[in-house]
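Deliverable D2.4 — example input (structure tokens):
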């Protein structure tokens, strides 16, 4: 293989102004192999797209990292105005950033004659600098702020969906002083409306479109808008991709001759690209079928292997599932109720009979209003998040002695219940995932043994529905790389937590607390 000398010479001339030529001539993979886009033409367009904001959603084996590293080195080596640039490249954790720097990035630099000569300190882990004046910092997001205090021109966030959203915000402010700021974010997706999926909404949303050789119709595999699903395009039994219109097996040459088509061309200010399982040459249908067979959670297969966001089907709460009764939202009660409180900007409060009938849903303004609600709703047991404002929560517990319990999400193993009362203390420990699972089922069951909410004015009903559905169940790897189920927050979710605390209060009452 290899490029002929004459072809290389011509590409080399174009390299300063052409990202693809630069990648072909100067970049190598960590195995020392030249980059080649003949089997991945969709990457060329991403390399050449100079819009300042990129959000790329990609499946495994998409080569997104090496593509963006190549794009980055082109910009560092050939800034349009010859002013040296500073870049910050992040991974979720410092350990991952260091591993990337030591193993992959160092080898890519060493394998490239140009970069090997330019990089002043190939062994440095946290920062690489170029003899022409550029700097590249590598850092994690779940850490003390390291490189975050350095002003930057280019931010690259790899594995965005596993990164700390709060730290990413801080990084964004580091671009303020730059005259040519760039922000490139990419990741395998996780759940809808979270991370790259949320950012995707603000981009021009390019999907890869090709024409079926059989029926001639244009199509996209596993598009983000779900006008067809990945199961329409991937036949796991026959181990083949199929046309989603006529079901003919897909000819790979047809996919390769496809093109990017923006689904939201009006968002031209930000580039969005979606690389799915049908695109990388390594991601074949038989390989995907094998991975699906081995997958413990089908939604994680869809997220990582297919490249589409997905939630666990059985545990997902949707707005249509939430049931409302005919009773009004109570401000007082003539018999004792139990309650749950999630204090915060608003103190979100849910109270009911503990047996399926929720009687009150209030977003209270301050702790005084909470105390009033304790009295007027005759709360016998209140479970309250004890972490937000511990001194105020303690004060409430003293004021209503024996009736207020402070909860935290510190329980790590589940016994008979998803919560545990700490002996002789006004404290309960809750297992977050098991608790949200259990309470999610109570919402889904509605009138059939679950919870029914009071009739609410339109705006409050909308708010409750949003909070109860603003969590999606998915899976993340723990420190040892084993998948662990979690509920991911995708918007304000305080009433979902208040409902969980209310559920704990209900169960505590059943076994004699507060009586
Ligand atoms: Zn067809």
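Example output (designed residues):
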């Amino acid at each position: 293989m290899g490029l002929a000398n004459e072809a290389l010479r011509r590409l080399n001339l174009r390299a300063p102004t052409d990202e693809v030529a630069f990648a072909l001539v100067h970049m190598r993979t960590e195995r020392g192999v030249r980059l080649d886009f003949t089997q991945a033409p969709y990457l060329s367009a991403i390399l050449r797209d100079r819009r300042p904001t990129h959000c790329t959603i990609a499946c495994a084996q998409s080569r997104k990292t090496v593509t963006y590293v190549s794009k980055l080195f082109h910009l560092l080596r050939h800034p349009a105005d010859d002013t040296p640039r500073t870049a910050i490249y992040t991974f979720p954790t410092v350990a991952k950033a260091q591993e990337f720097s030591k193993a992959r990035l160092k080898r890519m630099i060493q394998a490239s004659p140009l970069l090997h000569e330019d990089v002043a300190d190939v062994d440095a882990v946290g920062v690489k600098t170029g003899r022409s004046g550029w700097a590249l910092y590598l850092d994690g997001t779940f850490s003390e702020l390291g490189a975050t205090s350095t002003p930057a021109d280019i931010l690259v966030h790899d594995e965005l969906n596993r990164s700390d959203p709060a730290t990413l915000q801080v990084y964004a402010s580091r671009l303020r002083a730059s005259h040519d700021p760039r922000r490139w974010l990419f990741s395998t997706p996780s759940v809808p409306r979270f991370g790259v999926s949320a950012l995707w909404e603000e981009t021009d949303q390019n999907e890869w479109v090709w024409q079926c050789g059989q029926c001639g119709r244009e199509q996209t595999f596993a598009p983000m808008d779900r006008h067809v699903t990945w199961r329409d395009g991937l036949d796991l039994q026959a181990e083949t991709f199929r046309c989603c219109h006529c079901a003919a097996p897909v000819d790979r040459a047809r996919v390769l001759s496809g093109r990017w088509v923006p689904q939201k061309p009006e968002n031209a200010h930000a580039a969005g690209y979606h690389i799915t399982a049908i695109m990388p040459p390594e991601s074949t249908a038989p390989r995907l079928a094998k991975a699906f067979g081995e997958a413990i959670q089908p939604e994680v297969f869809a997220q990582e292997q297919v490249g589409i966001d997905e939630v666990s089907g059985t545990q997902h709460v949707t707005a249509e599932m939430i049931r409302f009764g005919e009773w009004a939202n109570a401000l007082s009660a003539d018999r004792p109720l139990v309650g749950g409180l999630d204090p915060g900007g608003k103190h979100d409060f849910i109270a009911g009979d503990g047996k399926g009938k929720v009687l009150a849903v209030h977003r209270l303004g301050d702790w005084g209003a909470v105390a009033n609600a304790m009295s007027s709703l005759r709360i016998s047991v209140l479970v309250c998040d004890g972490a937000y404002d511990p001194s105020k929560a303690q004060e409430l517990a003293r004021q209503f002695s024996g009736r207020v319990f402070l909860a935290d999400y510190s329980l790590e193993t589940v016994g008979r219940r998803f919560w545990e009362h700490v002996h002789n203390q006004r404290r309960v420990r809750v297992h977050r995932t098991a608790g949200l699972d259990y309470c999610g089922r109570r919402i889904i069951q509605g009138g059939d043994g679950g919870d029914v909410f009071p009739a609410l004015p339109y705006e409050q009903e909308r708010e409750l529905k949003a909070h109860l559905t603003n969590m999606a169940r998915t899976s993340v790897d723990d420190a040892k790389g084993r998948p662990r189920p979690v509920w991911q927050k995708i918007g304000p979710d305080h009433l979902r937590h208040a409902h969980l605390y209310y559920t704990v209060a209900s169960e505590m009452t059943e076994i004699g607390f507060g009586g």
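The first strand starts at residue 53 and ends at 58.
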